[in-house]
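For reproducibility, we list the full input for the NAP complex.
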Amino acid sequence: MTGFIKEALAEARKRKGYTYPNPAVGAVLVANQQVVGRGMHWAAGQPHAEVEALRGVREAAGTTLFVTLEPCCHFGKTPPCTDLIQEKKISRVVYAHADPNPQVSGKGAQILRDAGIEVSYIQDPEVDDFYRSYDFWTRHQRTWLTAKLALTKDFGTSGESGERLFISGPEANAYTHRRRSEADVLITSESTIRIDNPLFTVRLGKQVIKKPICILDREFRCALDSDIIKNALQTIWVGDHNRIETGKQRFLGLKGQVLGLESSKNLLRLEGLSSLLAQQGFHEAWIECGPRVFTELVKNQWVQEVVLYLSKKIAGSGGRLYFESLSIENHYRLLNVQETDSDRIEVWRLKRVFQDE
Ligand SMILES: NC(=O)c1ccc[n+]([C@@H]2O[C@H](COP(=O)([O-])OP(=O)(O)OC[C@H]3O[C@@H](n4cnc5c(N)ncnc54)[C@H](OP(=O)(O)O)[C@@H]3O)[C@@H](O)[C@H]2O)c1
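The corresponding predicted structure, in tokenized form, follows.
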């Protein structure tokens, strides 16, 4: 990765999880090997990263613009970046990921080349991975789902009487908050809310950030005074589509939406969850549910990524057989392992996703 693309990616990373339905993008403007402008796309409807990097620049002849994603060439909520790049007389554009959006794909680069601007596409695996959920959402109209589960050494997920257990250590918790921050929407279940009453906010240092929260609640019975509802940016209740009117009446006046999925044998058919959330513009979701939802999602390969925190603690409530029967390794490939003082953090990715690439 060129140093300047790395800097552009660092800009983009600051807003991952906050720009849906747009992708997070970063850009740096370089003159004589020095960064003279930098920018990121803050949120949908706000200026694009290229505009921010060029803010205050009158004419940029002789400069190179490094941008994580191919510059856009269409009118959305803001005008095309390709117009601005030509207007400022930028000499060269380097981008690291081709936009899968058919309105832009290859066209943004071609418009700039036709205008006499030197354009280089330097594909970069780190940038490709950064855009995995945006690519997935654009190509398949589905939200990239990641399910996390924390397990004790004896494969327990809660206390002996089903009560909440603080399983993971500080590094795993910090990892959770980073992943919550990078996701467009966070998912949990009515059962987990009833037992744990979690806040489900993003806590990074002293910052507390509210996110859209999706609650799997088949019968729309989630308690209205739950901390999660008070701390959500908006709430998306997903329940049985035959009960949708009950849900709308129950949550009337609260900020959010009530959506329906089909259900069978008293279970929501969670295979439809990814498309349902994609229609709301969410590229990426982070799921923190208990073992029932986790099992359903993983054994059916309805999540693209699985994150396990394997703790050194013993709970006395173990479920080794249940966990081993999931055979995660059959359908998921181990992507990353991090050993901390208290936990082993494993990231698994669906093998089929690799085949799609
Ligand atoms: N270790 C961890 O990482 C972790 C994380 C979160 C929670 N927990 C613990 O997990 C426990 C709760 O676990 P749980 O297994 O009871 O709850 P769960 O897996 O979080 O969720 C089950 C809930 O999801 C709903 N649901 C909807 N569709 C479903 C489907 N297709 N399959 C399964 N459930 C579906 C069920 O609603 P209906 O009953 O209305 O159908 C039920 O309320 C708590 O003790 C909590 O502390 C552990």
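Residues 149-150, 157-158, 162, 164, 167, 189-192, 195-196, 216, 218-219, 266-268, 270, 288-293, 296 surround NAP (CB under 6 Å). Residues 170-182 form the longest helix (13 residues). Both points were considered when choosing residues for closer inspection.
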